[in-house]
Write a structure and sequence with these properties.
Elements: H1 12-22, E1 28-33, E2 36-40, H2 41-51, E3 56-57, E4 67-72, H3 76-85, E5 90-95, E6 108-114, E7 133-139, E8 144-151, E9 156-162, H4 165-175, E10 179-183, E11 198-202, H5 204-208, H6 210-221, H7 235-252, E12 263-264, H8 275-280, H9 296-300, H10 306-317, H11 323-338, H12 340-350, H13 356-364, H14 370-381, H15 383-390, H16 399-406, H17 412-421, H18 442-469, E13 475-479, E14 483-489, E15 501-505, E16 509-513, H19 515-548, H20 550-576, H21 597-603
Parallel strand pairs: 1-5, 7-10, 9-12, 10-11
Antiparallel strand pairs: 1-2, 2-4, 3-4, 5-6, 7-8, 8-9, 13-14, 14-16, 15-16
Helix pairs in contact: 6-7, 10-20, 11-20, 12-15, 12-20, 13-14, 13-19, 13-20, 14-17, 18-19
Amino acid sequence: MSQQPASPRLTPMFEQYLRIKEGYPDALLFYRMGDFYELFFEDAEVASRELQIALTSRNPNAEAPIPMCGVPWHAAEGYVSQLLNKGYKIAFCDQVEDPRAAKGLVERAVTRVYTPGTAVEDVSLEPKGHTYLGALFWSADTDRGGFAWVDVSTGYWAGLHVKKSQELWQWAQKIAPRELLLPEDADVPASLHLTDIQAVRVPLRSHFDYKRSAERVLAAQSVAELGALGLEGRKELVQACGALLAYLEQTQMQDTKHLAPFEPLDLGQHLLIDDVTERNLELFRRLDGRKGVGTLRHVIDSTQTPMGGRLLEERLRNPWRELAPIQETQDAIAWLITHPENRKKLRETLSGVYDLERLSTRIALNRTSPRDMLSLRQSLAALPPVKSAITSSDADTPRVLRSITEHWDDLGDHAATLQKALADDPPQFITEGGLFKQGYNAELDELLDLVEHGENRVKALLDEEQKASGISKLKLGYNRVFGYYFELSKAVGGTPPEHFIRRQTLANAERFTTVRLKELEEKLLSAADRRKSLEYKLFQQLRGALAEARPRILFMADMLAQLDYWQSLAETAVRHNWSRPVLHTGQSITIREGRHPVVEGIIGEAAFV
């Protein structure tokens, strides 16, 4: 940090802050104080400038005031998103002990480091696009190199092993990860365009060491040998994968078990479109660098879900070389074109599906919110009607569609649990209570009844005592010292019941409690806190069950992505009156009355020549 307090005498809070900040010199430290995350010194000046928020001072009357700014903790995600988009790294420093149990200063520690390439929150992500973290390693000794990339928000990761360094860098340019991990001494080609790629230099030994990398990969994937992942004999690719895992463990501060099985890219199956060709074809961006109108993706993207949109991106970026998968896609599109009612129903039902991949990831990483659970519930409820939309008795139903319906998983068990459990309008945070419906848990129902109807239960107990004792003038009272009590006026007279316990004697009355009244009072006084605590526990149990179901959820997310991809191409073909090309493995190509989809999309079909 460039700025330090002028006085050598620091408060315990600032001593703690500076000690923690020392471990994260390249990150903006969000330091939790009450309901705010505060930033100090140079971090405060940077955040104030980039976020356009007020820069204040911790000690405005001192000779050297300490710059300070802050954001509300419950709104921090939005501010973090802005900083990530500008390329900053953020370290969240939270309270790690209960303030009520703390003796002196509350203990704090960094609980997660947010970086541009590791975001999992929707506010920081493009819905239909991948956000990649990449790692590249080239060995001059072996003339081999590996490049691996991971989308932390979905768990998808892949990589390739090549013999030409130029090809390795081409792929890095093509995939365009938000962050690219490189050894400290790696040379970056002068011709490489790193405009949208943030190069992150990391130590060779701690991140790219082969032995440690292999151990990380095997542990993360729960396999015994590298051959199970297609990594046998691909040392440099293993090192790139190990660097990714090391960086994730360092920033996320938890294991990487949520990652899907690693998928080495098969260059024999996919056509390599280099980044120059990709730019000139304007597949994803116009020549001026902008997305949207004027790109092929914009013309053909009629996907209804984020998963389908990302699959469309992958198919455009890595087209098939082989004829069979292309023809399978054509068969599915043709069926959807000739069955317009099915296509319409499929589009309508898919529109109710949220991003199952990213929802499942946040659930697995314990970063989920009640609103995420609500989105998952709605998505699972859409699965049966989606299946119905493609179920047909037609003999001409293509094999790929029949295969999907035969392997369909409605996830009905979890859909039923979410429907029974989750409130229809849950709060934003899991610590606020109000997460669950009445009838989901008997203990919670009792607490909810106490919170909402506690006073009535105390009055009901008074009625019981009045009838049982025959003392109709028995009264109920409450004060902060004695809590609830029964009061018997001396003027009324009568002998109190044997189970009454004397609490206080007044000039004109006696005050009593009972075992039942005391128990009810304790329940009432602690019901609100116990309710929140129980709801938090129940939420974590529900989250744990859904985390275990992640493979099933991801399987169905892939099914839905394929259906969405096919219906999108079918919808586009119908809209533009496109015909099905006949493909072969020869060298010739014949085009009759060809039209350029991007040009036509801009100027219109009537004006196209």
